Model the fold of this input.
Amino acid sequence: MAVTTKRVAIVGQGVMGLTCAARMLEQGYSVNIFSREEFTDTTSMSAGAYWWPHKTYPEERVSKWSKETYKEYAKSSLSIESGVHFERHRRFCIDPDDSAYARHLVDEWEEIDGHNYGISCCEAYLVVLPVIDVPIFMPYLKNHIESHGAEFHIKELESPAQLFPTFDLVINCSGVWAFHFVKDKEVFPIRGQIVKVSLTDKFHESTRIYQKEDTFTLILPRSNDIILGGTAQYDDWGRDSRSEDTDIILKRCRKLVPEISDCEVLGTAVGLRPGRKEVRLELELIAPNRPVIHNYGHGGGGYTVAWGCANEVTALANEYFSG
Ligand SMILES: Cc1cc2nc3c(=O)[nH]c(=O)nc-3n(C[C@H](O)[C@H](O)[C@H](O)COP(=O)(O)OP(=O)(O)OC[C@H]3O[C@@H](n4cnc5c(N)ncnc54)[C@H](O)[C@@H]3O)c2cc1C
Done:
């Protein structure tokens, strides 16, 4: 049965905060969303993004969340305004990849031979994946939530405790800033820089070379640009673009796909993926009648697990209030 009288504060308007807000509104909760920064400045806005649980653990829970999210994107892809569509994606693993199990979670995939593409790798496959065109998807989701009554506040909070007793429940979707917000020293940044270039008629496919380095090769065409990746720099809190990263990304991507060499460089973006040994998704009572549901630490796979995590957050909230 829908709960209609409980007031919920969600900390964060990245993809985790917004998907939780959508689910909680569906259940009849009143939702207020707090963010220390404008929505356009979140990590979530700097992502590609495509469905794949990069550096998101543990495998069993992530598989469940990823499958649920995949199904939700399949529904979203029926509406062009959502910014979600399915695309062929080639993945070449130069080093063993601990997220390779994800290909078994999708409807369509097949092994390919990397040597046919001039790439020496331990495994390679072609998968059909949801691509989430972030500059379209995130405003679409935010508008949807706003039109269903959520209120947004730009305010930096010191801790979940300050939101009680105004609210009955706090949902903590603070991303990498959980390091400060709930003083979780297990959270660490994985700095990601990407380069955006103009579209070309000569190349439409998405390709990723996986290797255990802090720079990798990704080419991801979107509706209005192509994302070139990227970096995965551990424990690096730097949010400014670096020209040396831009240079190496362009060099590697142009070498792999010469067809993009003439594309105009439109800009760069940097985001801090919330790294953690395991996602923290659990309910904590910080004091009697002071419940906080934590939902952070999704690494490089926040878009891949977002709806599954939001489903679990909502179930925890319903269970708490009905108990
Ligand atoms: C370059 C790059 C490429 C990526 N590609 C992919 C991909 O292809 N597929 C994929 O699935 N994932 C990808 N990711 C990962 C994905 O973007 C993240 O996992 C996801 O964005 C994390 O979302 P979040 O909502 O937890 O955090 P964020 O987007 O960082 O949002 C955190 C929110 O919490 C708020 N907040 C924090 N502390 C406070 C406070 N004290 N007071 C008030 N508000 C606070 C912030 O203001 C913000 O609104 C990529 C990331 C990067 C950087």
Remarks:
- The longest helix spans residues 302-322.
